[in-house]
């Protein structure tokens, strides 16, 4: 891991106007800083932003860049209209490994991934992915093939039941977070 500075600034209004909140680490509740968020600027690093406090609800991956209004973010795949918490994604140097399972609690077919997979149905003849174990690296999992639909950030650890975590959400594609953003 290198010493990479992480910085994201949130604004209450479109086009980087109104009150702002500069964040350089995880923030579980932005409501004491801003009443709403309608634009943001990622100066460095990568972040996951969440629609609810405490890293709950829908998630969206943000890399370095300017996001001048929520409509633009929504056109890029974000499926909510306000940001309430954010988590920085540490830069990972090294290999990526994740084992995916067809059923909850690491049951059914399993496959180990070391690179991106745009469609588990086509690649592994696996109709569903309900649990996983991330051994190395940071990953984004998507509900639809070709990295589309709702997403979820996965850091190293065991994830026994996606149904319990995300209200029945299933994942059909997954991608490594490989750049420093």
Characteristic terms for this protein:
181 residues, mainly beta, 4-stranded antiparallel sheet, elongated
Task: Give your account of this protein's structure.
With 181 residues, this protein is mainly beta. A 4-stranded antiparallel sheet has the order 2-1-3-6. The protein has a 4-stranded antiparallel sheet with strand order 9-8-10-13, with no helix packed on it. Strand 1 and strand 2 form a beta hairpin. The longest helix has 6 residues. The mean pLDDT is 90.
Write the layout of secondary structure elements.
Elements: E1 7-13, E2 17-23, E3 39-44, E4 46-52, E5 56-62, E6 65-67, H1 70-75, E7 85-89, E8 97-103, E9 107-113, H2 120-124, E10 131-136, E11 139-144, E12 148-154, E13 157-159, H3 162-166, E14 173-176
Antiparallel strand pairs: 1-2, 1-3, 3-6, 4-5, 4-7, 8-9, 8-10, 10-13, 11-12, 11-14
